[in-house]
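Field reference: sequence -> structure
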Amino acid sequence: MLNIKTVKNLLITDESKDGFCFRSSCSQTLKTSQLATEMADWNSSFTEADYLGMLSVMETIVTKYLAKGYNVTLPFGTLRANATGTCSNIQDGFTLGTGNHTLGFLFNANETLAKNVRSKLEYKQLPPDCTGEAKIYRITTLNSDASESSSLSVTAGKTLRIHGRNLSFDITDENQGMFLENESGLTRLSVYNRRGTNVVDVPVPSDLASGSYSVSIVTKPGNTYFTANIDSEVTVA
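Structure field:
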């Protein structure tokens, strides 16, 4: 469900203008494995494994052409890379990774998708004082001397440290916790060294297969589940 809350509009200095604006977040996440399952159940002769393979190939091809600077047209919209940043002189060029020169991605839904989503949208207005939304700011690993490293290439037993806000969760609720996901499925972690509001420390399980994993944390501070994601991926050797 789309959760919508009203917050103070910090960009408005003129009191005659609207002083508040809307911010939204998604309380649930459709994982790749769930997407493949849904597609396989849609009166199709293709299996879940078939769809996972197709999605893997699509990811490879889309990545290839995004890196070439293409607009990539999908059945439901267009995806493209987007360079951002600032410089002091008009002659200065863009250099990815230098200063605030970063690369983002923009998705524009086509009109058919937008129309269908608008007509079926499920949303909930949250109380204005709701501050329980979970956020992940960054992921690091812990060295043997307890210092942090930005390297996310890890082996079994290595401790991951997740920095964020409102990260507390009920470990007895199977829908809450920290999750790792790759093309093989979703893994819910059950052993933690630390479960704080702003920091979570978790060892990499010894039985976790090698590969790259996306990270998410699901919390439920009230009656609503919140899912916090981050673009960084953890690579298990």
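Note: The mean pLDDT is 90.
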